[in-house]
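User: Can you help me understand a structure? I only have the sequence.
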Amino acid sequence: MTPTNPDPTGALPVRSEPDIVLARQMVRKLTQELKFSLVDQTKMITAASELSRNTLVYGGGGAMEWSIVQQGARAGLRLAFVDEGPGIPDMDLAMKDGWTSGGGLGMGLSGSKRLVNDFEIESAPGRGTRVTITRWK
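Assistant: Let's start by predicting it. Here is the structure, written out as tokens:
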């Protein structure tokens, strides 16, 4: 699967660093097709980059799923980052700016939430994590 896939729904694996690059390229292509402003493209690409990296580093790899969504007259892009890793034991702590379970800056989840219109996270210890984000045009 390549970033030129025209499908309104699909998925890409997130199992290695090159997969993060492919995920970013796909999000760039999709936001351009939806005619997002350059600022909104950048916000969505940045959030996707952070969340795909989390999927790889903390979740042990997984997938990025996408769908072009409609709500009335407006269109949007919904991305879901899914892994079957260890899960997040303390969601409140994980969503605080500056907290990290690794060597990062601790801005991945909270920073991504600020870049999008809708943000949902589901996680349980030992059962993986699913982060779903949506940006509306």
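Now, to help you interpret it: The longest strand covers residues 62-71. Residues 38-57 form the longest helix (20 residues). Let me know which part you'd like to focus on.
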